[in-house]
């Protein structure tokens, strides 16, 4: 008898709770909700608009947006009321006018989220368009583009001779590490001339290339290379991996909106005390900047040496220096006056940028 009475009491209690829940007001004064403190507001907003307590994720999301000023209390009420759950509850909020003036907050929030998704999609699309092989952009086959490059850039032996100017830079790195432990990568390695130079220094380097014709030539020369988009390669590479990172005549093929991202990725995968060498056409040379740069239809825009130097320093390279490439060696760009037309004619047609990632010493 006592047990039956106890069960009846629980049933009655549950019935009473449900009855009280049904008594929750279906009409709410908006001003009564807005006067609460932030946490109280979130609680009451969920309670009265959705007829339930806020879940932890919802509470954190709206409270964070409220504190950051990204949403007002009115915005949150609108978002809750016109969510799928809010529409089912159908609570009428007195003072909440379903007008364009008030609902613009809801639309603004939705538009912001849509814009963020659109930017992400556009970034992916831009990456897709500008980081496929250059032969796709020009309509040339991999072999045809290789012939194009050889015709305008020069033969392999000529390029190897030009690359010798970087030997002192490589030698400085070799002094800091055991040579058999050094990891080097050449992004957009092309025909593999720089890989051969590093081999001559005793460094076994990896090339990254997307042109199949170039890759076959590299394989025939017993050099090491992988077929990959440089951004995908960097993305999959762990922090502090390479002692030497190079990219010769690559950055001018990268969309201007992605160049800083490229440099940040290089900095991330570069080891402490490591170096990065970039080489690109020099727009300070009047013949290059006014015409020769655009001979290759896969070039996008030139990168000015002082701009690259400034950006490298800004994003965190401990040393970021651009050099003009003279017969006697690399000359820092600040030492070139550019106070006469002759300077713009005689300055090197390419320039080099060297970024260093120094070890943090306490």
Plain-language structure description:
With 362 residues, the protein is an alpha/beta fold. The chain has two domains: 17-122, no CATH class; 134-357, Rossmann fold, CATH 3.40.50. 52% of the residues lie in helices and 16% in strands. It contains 18 helices and ten strands. It has helices at 2-22, 30-34, 38-50, 56-67, 73-81, 84-89, 100-130, 134-138, 142-153, 156-163, 167-176, 193-200, 212-220, 230-235, 259-269, 286-290, 305-315, 341-346; strands at residues 27-29, 92-94, 184-187, 205-209, 224-227, 242-248, 270-281, 319-326, 329-332, 350-357. The longest helix has 31 residues, at 100-130. It is elongated, with a radius of gyration of 32 Å. The N and C termini lie far apart (79 Å).
């Amino acid at each position: 008898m006592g047990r039956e009475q106890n069960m009846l009491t629980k049933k009655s209690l549950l019935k009473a709770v449900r009855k009280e829940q049904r008594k929750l007001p279906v009409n709410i004064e908006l001003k009564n909700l807005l006067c609460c403190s932030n946490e109280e507001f979130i609680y009451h907003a969920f309670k009265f608009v959705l007829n339930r307590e806020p879940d932890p994720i919802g509470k954190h999301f709206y409270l964070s947006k409220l504190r950051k000023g990204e949403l007002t209390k009115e915005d949150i009420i609108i978002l809750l009321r016109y969510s799928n759950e809010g529409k089912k509850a159908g609570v009428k909020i007195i003072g909440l006018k379903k007008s364009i003036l008030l609902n613009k907050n809801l639309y603004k929030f939705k538009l912001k989220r849509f814009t963020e998704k659109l930017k992400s999609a556009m970034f992916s699309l831009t990456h897709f368009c500008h980081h496929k092989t250059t032969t796709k952009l020009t309509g040339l086959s991999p072999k045809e583009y290789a012939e194009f490059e050889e015709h305008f850039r020069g033969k392999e032996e000529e390029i190897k001779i030009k690359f010798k100017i970087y030997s002192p830079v490589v030698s400085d790195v070799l002094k800091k590490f055991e040579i058999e432990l050094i990891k080097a990568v050449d992004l957009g390695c092309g025909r593999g001339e720089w890989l051969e130079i590093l081999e001559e220094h005793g460094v076994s380097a990896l090339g990254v290339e997307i042109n199949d014709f170039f890759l076959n030539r590299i394989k025939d020369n017993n050099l090491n290379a992988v077929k990959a988009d440089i951004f995908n390669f960097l993305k999959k590479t762990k922090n502090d991996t390479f002692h030497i990172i190079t990219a010769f005549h690559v950055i001018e093929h990268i969309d201007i909106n992605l160049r800083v991202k490229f440099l940040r990725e290089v900095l991330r995968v570069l080891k402490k005390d490591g170096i990065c060498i970039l080489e690109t056409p020099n727009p300070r040379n009047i013949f290059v900047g006014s015409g020769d740069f655009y001979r290759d239809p896969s070039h996008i825009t030139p990168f000015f040496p002082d701009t690259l130097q400034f950006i490298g320093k800004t994003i965190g390279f401990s040393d970021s220096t651009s050099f003009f490439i003279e017969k006697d060696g690399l000359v820092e760009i600040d030492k070139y006056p550019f106070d006469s037309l002759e300077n713009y004619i005689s300055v090197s047609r390419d320039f080099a940028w060297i970024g260093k990632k120094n070890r943090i010493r306490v």
